[in-house]
Amino acid sequence: MLDGLVLYRRMAAASIAAQLRYPGTFVLQAAGNFVTTLLSFFGLWSLFHRFGSLGGWDIGMVAVLYGLVNVAFSVAETLGRGFEIFGGEFVKTGNFDRLLLRPRSTLLLLLGHELRLRPVGRFLQGAFVLAAGLHLSPHVGWATVWLIPWAVAGGAALFLGILIGQAALCFLTIEGLEVVNILTYGGVEAGQYPLPMFGRWLRRFLTWAVPIAGICYYPTLVMVRHADPLGMPMWFGAVSPALGFVFLGVMVWAWGRGVAGYVSSGS
């Protein structure tokens, strides 16, 4: 276990050092990521500027939702680059065979493949919007802001699980399926809005199948002291981020099944 952590630290350090050899490129990429993702928030802001509030939700409360889901996704995007490119870079080319020859977990090796720094732009703008939302929300329970790191950790686990699941599908499809982006980027978009805005079947899907609501919507309810119109008890928001880790565990199991049945595509 400790050897694995030491190896991952070395791979991560090498990846970071390689990206920082061109600091100008890194700064421009991070700044571009910051600006482009922040522009999406202005779409939400214009909606609430025009109508004031929607279903009892104002711009401050929605900003907390937006911030949580974007910060969590940026962490997963930083860690999961190896799984995102897995089909084209490893399965299709046969390079995954080389990973199997190494005496380390394939999950660890892919996590250390590239620690991408560009998502720091999304992380910073998400954190900025989250802080602004907490400031603007009139009923924030400051004793509950400990939920922020817990929700971010659960969200990062959830999105990393989606990326691992996407990679596991490549054992069947060879190349990655763009349709999975419905759960990654589409999940980020869905997480930015209050859950009651969606239909019943989609609410259940976002709560129990791919629990995006568990890592942003329900913790936000606790932090801003807003009763759930769907009837879920307030305490659920304090434990719901654990659903992200449960989802990650399921995807890790699916990954193990995929590796066990892997047949090389050659080179």
Automatic annotation (TrEMBL):
InterPro entries: ABC-2_transporter-like. The keyword Disulfide bond does not apply. Keywords: Membrane, Transmembrane, Transmembrane helix. The chain crosses the membrane at residues 26-48, 54-76, 148-174, 205-222, 234-255. This is ABC transporter permease protein.
